Every structure is written in structure tokens, then in C-alpha cells.
Amino acid sequence: MNDLKRLLHYLGPYRKDMILGALLVFAETLFELIIPILMADIIDVGVANHDIPFILQKGIQMGICAILSLLTGLLYARYAARASYGFGSRIREAQYEKLQHYSFANLDHFETSSLVTRMTTDVTVLQNAINGGFRPMARGPVMLILGVGLSFWMNAKLAIVFLVCTPILALTLFFIVRKVSPMYHRLQKAMDRLNDVVQEGLTAIRAVKAFVRGDYEEEKFKSVNDDLMQTSQRTFHFAVLNLPAFQFTMYAAAVLIMWFGGNMILQSQLQVGDLTGFLSYVLQVMNALMMISSVFLLLTRSLASAKRIVEVLDEEPTLSSPKESLSQVPDGSVRFEHVSFRYSKDAQEDALSDISLTIPSGQTVGILGGTGSAKTTLVQLIPRLYDATEGSVLVGGNDVRKYDVEALRDAVGIVLQKNVLFSGTVRENLLWGNESADDETLWEACRAACADEFLKRMPKGLDTDLGQGGVNVSGGQKQRLCIARTLLKHPKILIFDDSTSAVDTATEGRIRASLAQMKDMTKIIIAQRVTSVMDTDQIIILDDGKIHAIGTHHDLLDHDPIYQEIYASQMKGGDPHGAEQCKTS
Ligand SMILES: Nc1ncnc2c1ncn2[C@@H]1O[C@H](COP(=O)(O)OP(=O)(O)OP(=O)(O)O)[C@@H](O)[C@H]1O
């Protein structure tokens, strides 16, 4: 409940709409409640005395009440729509803004698909609860109190008969809410799983086709889809019990009232019109109760969604800038002092243990190591994509935790292993690196990254539209565009995480030659090929999260048997990428 209360503050700007909406619903309810009184008058006075003008007069009054009730209802719908959709939009904005401040460690806590569901389906559930629930919530209690009051005013004995029936309803509602509440949690989780499978299946659809795994993926989809269907069916099977329970009670109450009321008419204690009017109130009160119970069900579902939304909003950022942060990185030097790192508290072992190394500003360093030896993990600590669990990482002589995070990341350009381009033109993608770059600067960066030749062959050049995620460019072209984008940042430290794996060796050589011109930049190059790093100032060999050796190509070739083995195997043409050979133990 607290989660929902917290989210209601996003309704703040729509307070006026909600108040106006509530007043309109109140007015609508009053107009509806006047109708049975007029109806009773028509039967008891107009029909009994054959008084046509009286019947007409009351009929017109009934018509006016009905029209006013319709108009207030329509006007209410406008305010409710504005408040509920505005509320949903503000929550989505808050979630999206929060996500922008998530560190990699925060992102590791949630599946991407779960975040998507939390930002879409869960918000829609809350939005619908406001849109669909506000009217019955405002109308139900008014109708209930006035309806019961007026029915007592009409005939107290009959009102007691009617009230005796209501505990059945309360019990049914209690049973349904208790049963359904945990089911809604399961339902949202089943929705997460479905989104997960759909997202993964669509992202990897080319691989699925290439491996002819369509049947397997279909089976996987069918299983989560069936699970969602069954969970939904079970949940709504209970939720809809609400309606028959109400109908049963309503008819039972109507029969009892007709029986008692009929007897009272026979004993001249009641008039036919009063009985008809009374029955209208019974229907209205029942309706009010039905509305209140539907609000309870909406609320139960909303609580599950509110909890999931608040989890996203309350996720404690694992990285933040200190209050008095450094806004300038003085130089591109990097030092690791006894650094250990573990991805999560639950992880079995450290990904990096006791790493100490020094990279002077302007040096070029190569990192070699087998798959999973923690090369990527190591470099991710430099721009604080993660924070070291133990020890310190220093950039420009200062602990990275002392910098303003944005200033630090501005000084570090990292070309990720998994390249990401966005839909849009080449120019739009490149400008990510430097928003104010002119065409000449863009082409210069493309030249350094060897991306100029293929771009010039494209009829639209920099204005070439990249399909979703750059599907219409090759892997190597994509890598070169990502390099150009990072070079445009003019970072003090440039990190290549296996960023030239998809380009041919001649092109890679040309990229290395242009990087060599950028003397003031510290360059850290993770590679699988010895040739990619042999002319660097020092090579770090990682093994299983530890430093196995550090030295120049010649030092290592002279003294390190593992490096000698990697070199020999790659130079002989064994495995040109040498990934497995780099595994040193
Ligand atoms: N987000 C993560 N959460 C938990 N463990 C992770 C995460 N990313 C990597 N790891 C684990 O940390 C270890 C080091 O991974 P890392 O990606 O740094 O290796 P790598 O040397 O860069 O591998 P490769 O050459 O295959 O890219 C691996 O055991 C990996 O499973």
C-alpha cells in the first residue's frame, strides 16, 4: 500500500482534475438518486389519480435528471483521462530518468525485459486503475450511503430486509481479494518471462535462422505463452466470481423485498410506487457495492504493479559523484592499486584479484588473455562502469571515485566489445561522440578509423541511414564507425575492447598507425591477436582475473613461456585469433 501511496504523488499536477472529477461524479450520482423518488411519485400520485399533467411534469424532471447525469458523466471522463494518462506518463518519465543513472551493477539486477514490462504493462495497470477506478471510488460510497439512507427514509422495515443480504457480498469479496492478490504477482512475472523470450528471440532471430533453431525457439515461446495464458485464466477465473456473487445477492434481495413488500401492500402498509422506487434503490446500492468491489480488485492488481515500479525507482545507484567532486581529469595516467572486483555479493569468487599496475599518461598498453580472464572487467573499472570491491583505481593521479562521474567518463573513450549503433544516419551516430563536430572533423575521425573509404562509396555518405542498430553495414564497418565515434570525443584515455576483431589485418594496421599519431592519448588495447599489441609500450597478460605477466613484447618473448607459446602458435598460423591459446593455465 505504501508503494501505491508513494506513486500517487505523481498525480500532483492533476489534483485540480481529480477534484473537479470527484465533484462531477458526486453531481452525477445525486441526479441518478433523484430519479427513483420521481418514479415513485409518478406511480403513486400520477397513475393512481390519472393526473396526466403531473405525470408529464415529473417525467420531464426525470428526463432532465437523466440528461444532467449523462453530461456530468461525460465531462468527468475528460478530466479522468487527463489525470490518469498524465499520471502514467510522469511515472514512465521518472523510471526512464532513473534508468539513465543506473550503473552497470544496477542494470545487472534487472532483466531488460522486466524493465520493459515495468515501464509499460505495470504503468498501464496503474493508469487504468486511476481511469477506471476513480469513478466507482468516488461514486460508490456516495451512492451507498445516500441509497441506504433514502431506502430507510422510504421504508425502514424493507431496508432492514435488504441490509441482511449484504454480509454475503462482503464475505465473497474478502475471499476473492485474498485469493487473487498473490496471483497478480505471478501474472506480472509470467508477463516478464514472455517479454524476455520474445525480446531475445527477436534480437537473435538471424542466429536462430542460421542454426535452424526455429522449432526450439517456438517451443520455448509456446511454453511461456501457455504459462501466461494459464496464469491469466486462473487469476481471472477468481476475479470474475465477483459478478455472479453480486447478481445472486441482488436477485435474492429483490425476491425477499418483493415478498415482504407484496405482503405490506396487501396489508395497506405500503404503496406500489414506493415498492418500485425502493427496488430502484436496492439496485443502485447493489451497483455501488459492485463498483466498490471492482475498485478493490483493481487496487489488488495495482499494488502488485506499484511494487514493481517502486523497485525500479528505489534501486540504490551503486555509483554516484561525491559532493565535492573533481571536474577535470589532469592527464591520462592510470594506476590500479591492489584492486579486486566481484560482480555481486552472491558471486562465488572475485572476477579480478589483487591487480596492481601503472600506465603512464600517453603510453599504449596491450592486454592479452583467454576468454573470461577478465580483460573487459579490468577496463570497465577505469570509467567507473563498475567500482572496485577492494583497492583503488587512479586516473590522472586521483581515485576515480573522487571525480564527477560525467567528467571522468568524458575523459575516457571506450569502444565496447558489443558495438552499438542506433537507428538514424551515420552523422547522427557520429555526433554522439561530439555534438558540435563539423563535417570536416567527422571525416577526419572516419579517416583515422578507416571508415572513410566505405562511407565515400555510399551515395549518401554521412547521411546514409543505418538500419536498426546498423543492420545494413558489415561487422567490420560497424566497428570502424564505433571507433570514429569514440575518437571524436578526443578522450585522454582510449580503450579498445577487442574493437578491431572484425577488420582485416591490413586495415587494423592502418588504424594502429593513425592511433600512433595521437601521442597525448593513453591507449589501452584489448586484443586476441599478438600482432595487435606487439608494438605497444607494455603488454599485460591476464589469467583468471590475475596479472600473469607485464612487459614489452621483447621482454615477454625472452622470458615468458606462455607468451612465447601464444606468439609461436599465432605466427605459425595455428589459430590466428589465438583466443584459446591465450588461456594460460
Ligand atoms: N555482468 C556480469 N555479471 C556477472 N559476472 C560477469 C559479468 N560480466 C562478466 N562476468 C564474469 O566475469 C568473468 C570475466 O569476464 P570478462 O568479460 O571480463 O572476460 P574477458 O576476458 O573480457 O572475456 P572475453 O575475452 O571472452 O571477452 C567471467 O567469468 C564472466 O563470466
From TrEMBL:
Any one GO molecular-function label of the UniProt entry: ABC-type oligopeptide transporter activity
Domain ABC transmembrane type-1, first and last residues per copy: 19-301
Name of this protein: ABC transporter
Localization annotation: Cell membrane
Record-linked PANTHER family: ATP-BINDING CASSETTE SUB-FAMILY B MEMBER 10, MITOCHONDRIAL, ATP-DEPENDENT PERMEASE MDL1, MITOCHONDRIAL
SMART domains the record matches: AAA
Membrane topology annotation: Multi-pass membrane protein
ABC transporter domain: residues covered: 334-569
Major localisation: membrane
Organism: Solibaculum mannosilyticum
InterPro entries xrefs: AAA+_ATPase, ABC1_TM_dom, ABC1_TM_sf, ABC_transporter-like_ATP-bd, ABC_transporter-like_CS, P-loop_NTPase, Type_1_exporter
Keyword Transport carried by entry: yes
Keyword rRNA-binding found: no
